[in-house]
Every structure is written in C-alpha cells, then in structure tokens.
Amino acid sequence: MKKINYQQKGLNVHLISALMILTAISAPWFDLSVSNHSFIKTYIAGIGIIILVLMSLWNKRPDANSSLHISTIKTSLLALFALGSVSVFWSVNVDFSITKWMIWFTIFCAFVVGYHLKIDNKTLLKLAWGLLIAAFVIAAVGILQYLFDPFTLTQATPPSSTFGNKNMTTQPIVLIWPLALFLLFSNQVKGRQVWVLTTLTALLMVFVFYTKTRSSWLSIIAEVILIGGFLLLQRKHFTSWITWDSNKTTATLFAIVLFLLMINLNKYGAESSVGSAASQTASAFQDAGKSGQVRLRIYEVAIDMIKAAPIFGTGLGSWFHNEIQGGFGTHNVLSYQRAHNDFLEVGVETGIVGMVLLLIAALSLSIAMFKIIFNDNLRHSRFYFLLWVGLTGSFVQMQFSFPYQLAMPALLFGLYAGITAKHSEQFIKPLKLLKRKTTSLYYRFVKGAWMLILVVISSIYIEWIIAYSMLNKINISRNFNQIEYNIPSIYHLEFQNVLGFLSQAYLEANKATAGGN
C-alpha cells in the first residue's frame, strides 16, 4: 500500500524518558510512618503526563487544513475509555470510580503523547535507552535491597524496589526489557555501549530472578520464545535483521556469566549460598500450587460479579466495593483490592462490552504492529516487533496480576499504543479520513481545555496528598480521633491500606496504654 506522507514536529523524547525514570524512582523515601507506594507513583505519572500533553500541543504546528485519521485502534480504545468514564453514572462506588478513572486517564494522555511523538530511528534509539535506564533504576534499587538492605522504604518488603510489592515492581520490566534487544541488534550501538547495554540487561534479569515472581518469569519466558521463534522464521534474512560482531558476542557472554554468578548471591554472601539459585527456583514453584488455588478463588468471585452485571458492569473501581460490601466476598476472598486478572476486572467494571472492546483493541494493535513489521524498513520493523513482544508478555502477566491498574505500566501501554497508532497510519487505510479546517482560535481552545484539565486533576491529587500527609502526622502524634477530619472529599481507593495501618497503630497504642495502667 502506498505510504501516506505527513509532517510532524514531535516532543523531545528525553522528557518522556525523564518522566519514566522519575516515576520509577518515586517512593516514600522520607521518614513517613504511613505511606502508599502506588499512590505516589500515580500522582507523579498523572500530573507529569498531562504536562507532556500540553508540551506536545505547544510543539504542534497550526494547520488550517488538517485531517482526522479514524482507525480501529483509536475507535476501540476511545470507546473503552468512554465506557469507563460514563460508568460513573451507574457505579456502585463513585469515589472508587474516580480513583480508577485517573489511571485510565493517564493511559489516554500517554496515548496522546505517543501519537504526537516524531518517529525516526534516532528517536526510537533514544526512547529505548531512556526506558531501559528507567527499568535499571527499578532493578538497581531492588538488588541493593536484596543483597545489602542499605535503606528501608516504609511499608515495603525487599526486594520490592520503590513499588512496595515485588509483584508490582517487575511489571514495567516485562514491558521494557525486549527493547534492549532492539539496541543490541542495531548497528548504531557499538563499542562500550554494547557492554553497558548487556550489563544493564543482565542486572534486570537478576532482579526479576530475586523477586521470585512467577507471573513475571512466565511472561519473560513467553517473550523469549516469541523472539526465538520469530528469528527462526526469519533465518533466511537473519543477517539483515541483526547486526552482530565479536564485541557483541564477548559482551553477551560476560552478561550471561554475570547473571549466573549473581543469582547465586544473597545477603550472606556467595559462600553461604551455594545452590541458592536452584533452591530459590524450587521454593518459588513449590508455592505456585497454593498461590494458584488462591487465584482461582478470586477469579470465581470475579466471574460471579460479571454474571450479576453482565452488559456494562458495576463501574470503574467497583471490584473492591463488590467484594467488601456487595456480598460477593467469601471467607477466603475478602480483602483483595484487585482481582489479580486485569481482563476479568475490566469485565467486572465495564461488563462484556468492555471485555470485547479490550480484545478488539489488542487485536487491532497486533495487526497494526505486524503491518509495520512487514512493510517498513528493518530498523522500524525490529522496534515494533519487540514492542509487540513486550505487550504480549504483559498481556500474559495481566492474566495473573494487575499491571494496568498501576501508574508505570499504564504510561507504557498508552505510549506504545500511541506511537503504534500513528506510525501504522502509513500502511493501514483509515476507517474514515475526515478533512477539516481549523483556526488559531481552535488551537487556543484545545490548549486552554488541557490547562483546565491539568488544574482539575492536580487539585484532586493535591487534596489526596494533603490528606496522606495529615494522616502521617496523626500516626506520629497518636491523636487518632482527628482521622475523621482528614478524609478528602473524594475517597481514594488506597485509603483502605492507610486506614488499615492506622487501625493497627491505634490498637497497639491502646494496648500500651492499658498495660501502663
């Protein structure tokens, strides 16, 4: 198909990388007695990505004769977002719906940023390096926690990095690490860069191994199989797909040796950890049966919720409300804030309609990526194939976990979908191409609307931030009767965790007082 030529002036890709790194490193680093890791990342990512949208709009050149390319990707994702947005009108818990909508809006904004990003090989190389560094930040903190524990993040168990939970901390890595191969296979990564790249990749895998997160192990294994299988199919064109030399061979062998050595280390040192890798692997799979049984019970509850509201669900964020107050909880599924299966949770919240829209979006993304892979130049083909591998691995993971209810995977998904939707327009005929005339007034209106959105979203987050800060002070002062005066007007879903910590502190304070008397 003939390419459609278009002009675009993109956002500086380093700003995207900076936001990813900032989100990766953000955590309750200060001496907070009450904290929530996922909330901190949510407001950093949510406010940051809206600012990047504004910057993208400011960089966009006004065009009196513009066109709107309507595609299956855009239509399905926008329809799903709209369904989630209007579900607030029938939601069983409006506050929880707003909490969840903020994550969905982060995905929407990341899509807009990715869609307006200028795509060329130089930009893709910079983006891959930036995302890999963000992933390395996660791994570096986690490895330090695991081997040396030089710092203790509030309410986090090592090696959870800055996420507070080892399952959540590996989810961005599943999405990012395949891009390391895009860099490794490129003829523009040479010399010392190759050694830096292979070492960073080895440390990512070391960290994933330390976490003993089975869903991530399974996802990465699936990604490796996909990459190996594709290269096998392309064996006749192997040399054109991959640029290789003796330096890359040596660096890769070094990375493999580094990985094998480090997975046999622990905080007691190498001498005390002979067979550590084998014992950790065995331990992880011994726990798999018990964990699987728990997951099946959760899924049964989720299916019961879907059956109760099959068409449009019970509104965004409604899983936890249904479980606690809706009568769906059981004696062994009563305190899970998430369904540990994003696909089923979409069904709970938006019904079968939402599930179908999600499947259409996933299928259209895959089709678009393979259109690029088989029709564009090899540089772009490598990038989009490995992007598809990352998303596929994450899709496997979301069947056992909840990556897309968290800030960083949400950013990555929106970004990946946006750049895919834009680039595929060169190869896929639109469902409809709307030509329109726009004026400078229109562009000023759009920018003003996004500034208003930034103010509104930021004000909600600021109210939540202040509430968390006040609850921290209450916990330190032990003045627990002030809690009711510091609940925000919109009740954040993660407040359940914070109030749980405070309840435990309150009981301990009462026991101490009773003992003293």
Helices, strands, pairings?
Layout lengths: L12 H13 L11 H23 L5 E6 L1 H15 L7 H22 L5 H27 L18 H4 L1 H6 L1 H8 L6 H20 L2 H20 L4 H4 L4 H17 L13 H11 L1 H21 L9 H7 L17 H34 L2 H20 L9 H18 L7 E6 L2 H38 L17 H22 L1
Antiparallel strand pairs: 1-2
Helix pairs in contact: 1-2, 1-5, 2-4, 2-19, 3-4, 3-16, 4-18, 5-8, 5-9, 8-17, 9-12, 10-17, 14-16, 16-17, 16-18
Contiguous helical run count: 20
Main sheet?
Answer: 2 strands, antiparallel
Structural class: mainly alpha
String of helices and strands: HHEHHHHHHHHHHHHHHHHEHH
Shape, per Cα inertia axes? globular
Radius of gyration: 24 Å
- Helix % is 55-70%
Q: How many distinct beta strands?
A: 2
Enumerate the spans where pLDDT stays under 50 for 5 or more consecutive residues.
Answer: 1-8, 270-274
Portion in strands: under 5%
- Mean pLDDT across residues: 88
Strand order of the largest sheet: 1-2
In whole angstroms, the N-to-C terminal distance is 84 Å
